[in-house]
From TrEMBL:
<dbReference type="GO" id="GO:0030170">
    <property type="term" value="F:pyridoxal phosphate binding"/>
</dbReference>
<dbReference type="Pfam" id="PF02784">
    <property type="entry name" value="Orn_Arg_deC_N"/>
</dbReference>
<dbReference type="InterPro" id="IPR000183">
    <property type="entry name" value="Orn/DAP/Arg_de-COase"/>
</dbReference>
<keyword id="KW-0028">Amino-acid biosynthesis</keyword>
<keyword id="KW-0663">Pyridoxal phosphate</keyword>
<dbReference type="InterPro" id="IPR029066">
    <property type="entry name" value="PLP-binding_barrel"/>
</dbReference>
<dbReference type="GO" id="GO:0008836">
    <property type="term" value="F:diaminopimelate decarboxylase activity"/>
</dbReference>
<keyword id="KW-0210">Decarboxylase</keyword>
<feature type="binding site">
    <location>
        <position position="356"/>
    </location>
    <ligand>
        <name>pyridoxal 5'-phosphate</name>
    </ligand>
</feature>
<comment type="function">
    <text>Specifically catalyzes the decarboxylation of meso-diaminopimelate (meso-DAP) to L-lysine.</text>
</comment>
<feature type="binding site">
    <location>
        <position position="329"/>
    </location>
    <ligand>
        <name>substrate</name>
    </ligand>
</feature>
<dbReference type="InterPro" id="IPR022653">
    <property type="entry name" value="De-COase2_pyr-phos_BS"/>
</dbReference>
<feature type="binding site">
    <location>
        <position position="218"/>
    </location>
    <ligand>
        <name>pyridoxal 5'-phosphate</name>
    </ligand>
</feature>
<dbReference type="InterPro" id="IPR022644">
    <property type="entry name" value="De-COase2_N"/>
</dbReference>
<comment type="similarity">
    <text>Belongs to the Orn/Lys/Arg decarboxylase class-II family. LysA subfamily.</text>
</comment>
<dbReference type="InterPro" id="IPR009006">
    <property type="entry name" value="Ala_racemase/Decarboxylase_C"/>
</dbReference>
<dbReference type="GO" id="GO:0009089">
    <property type="term" value="P:lysine biosynthetic process via diaminopimelate"/>
</dbReference>
Length: 417
């Protein structure tokens, strides 16, 4: 998107504002699909939690994506957006049996990640097929050597518990139709990922009725210059070969599934905020913007680096700035970064604001959550309005005259009596 279009959007819809470029989402979807053109049956299930605006879900549905969901509410959003129940997979962690049953009743596919619920669900509903989430305990070591780690991860059923898992399946006579892994870490080393997938293939041999193997996600995208990104073309080629070979031995053409979130939407998003104050201290120049971790928490939550550009003065001389928010806590977006000279009133643009940005926004400091705009075929379409004061108080219950204000006037106190 051009800077002029972004500035126009900030002027039209106000700031701060999130903007998503549909063209980038579409091209990322096709890039991933093409990378795996070597397998006959591929299914991408977009991870709704990355960016769950219904317009984005509809876009994904139109591309032929399925949906990966982690709460019953995300399931409902997916159905509302037009996904068929069979194209939705429910992959929660640590939720109740009741929530899983509710999802199963809606007809979505179920993925279970612990033995306790697996046994309870299988005993009550032996006819509903389930996918099981396996933890292969593989992670890349510091020098990208393969090490067996992540033993403490709360996600998935440990590969060391497969014998126990098989006993549950046998006793309940349930049908396991898929196996799944999602380590949650970035795929930086393709060989490590292939090693984990070999473990999954080995595990898969224990189940006779599989329809799919789901490799989760972990596609890394660049956030700043010099960042490594997952080479999806290389991964696609290598994993497809391994997968096809596995299907041959297994004796059935299975579906290869992925659940990308970040890969599809991260780079499509930009977040625009305006500079309220430029403040020079003895050591630093701060630029305070009209947002904070209430709208974009990733830098403070897990040290994410978002590239920030001054789109109001892109040719200006570069100087060092610390970009901070307006929240009454430390909310530093960037420390001493070179940015084109900033004046009060300039619009700063955060890149990679598509994934885990708006969906993590809150009302902290009683601020409104910002609007979301979709840039589609050269037009800016509002897909979520900025909140208003009514939204802040909507669910609060008025306690009426339970307390009487000490500062109320005599007249008001008399009225209460
Ligand atoms: C969050 C999540 C994803 C998406 O991960 P990304 O890094 O955004 O691609 C996929 N699968 C599951 C089960 C998840 O919880």
């Amino acid at each position: 998107m051009r800077n002029a279009d972004l500035i126009q959007i900030a002027n039209t819809f106000g700031d701060p504002v999130y903007v998503y470029d549909s063209e980038k989402i579409i091209s990322q979807f096709h890039r991933l699909t093409n990378a795996f053109s070597g397998v006959r049956k591929l299914q991408l299930n977009y991870a709704a939690k990355a960016l769950s605006n219904i317009a984005i879900l509809k876009l994904m549905n139109s591309l032929g994506s399925g949906l990966d969901t982690v709460s019953i509410q995300e399931v409902q959003l997916g159905l509302l957006a037009g996904f068929s129940p069979e194209s939705i997979i429910f992959t929660p962690n640590g939720v109740s049996l009741e929530e899983i049953e509710e999802a199963a009743q809606l007809g979505v596919r179920i993925n279970i990640d612990n033995l306790s619920i697996l046994e309870q669900f299988g005993t009550k509903h032996p006819d509903i097929p389930v996918c099981v989430r396996i933890n292969p305990h593989v992670m890349a070591g510091g020098n990208s050597k393969i090490s067996v780690g992540h033993i403490d991860s709360k996600f998935g059923i440990s590969i060391h518990q497969i014998p126990h898992l098989l006993r549950i399946v046998e006793l309940t006579k349930m049908n396991v139709n898929g196996i799944h892994m999602h380590t949650g870490s970035d795929i930086l080393d393709i060989d490590v990922f292939l090693y984990a997938s070999e473990i999954l293939f080995e595990t898969a041999q224990n189940f006779k009725d599989l329809d799919f193997i789901d490799f989760g996600s972990g596609f890394k995208v660049p956030y700043k210059e010099g960042d490594i990104e997952t080479n999806v073309e290389e991964l696609g080629k290598k994993l497809s070969d391994h997968f096809n070979a596995f299907c041959e031995t297994y004796g059935k053409e299975l579906t290869l599934a992925f659940e990308p979130g970040k890969f599809l939407v991260s780079e499509a998003g930009q977040f625009l905020a305006r500079v309220n104050v430029v403040k020079q201290t003895t050591s630093t120049v701060f630029a305070s913007i009209d947002t904070g971790f209430n709208h974009l928490i990733r830098p403070m939550l897990y040290g994410a680096t978002h590239q920030i550009n001054n789109i109001s003065n892109p040719e200006g001389r570069e100087r060092y700035y610390s970009i901070v928010g307006y929240i009454c806590e430390t909310d530093t977006f960037a420390s001493n970064k070179r940015i084109n000279e900033i004046s009060e009133g300039d619009i700063l643009c955060f890149n990679n604001a598509g994934a885990y940005c708006f969906t993590m926004a809150s009302n902290y400091n009683s601020r409104f959550r910002p609007p979301e705009v979709l840039w589609h075929e050269g037009k800016a379409i509002l897909i979520r309005e900025r909140e208003t004061f009514d939204d802040l108080i909507k669910h609060q219950v008025d306690v009426k005259d339970l307390f009487v204000s000490k500062t109320a006037s005599k007249k008001e106190k008399a009225a209460v009596k």
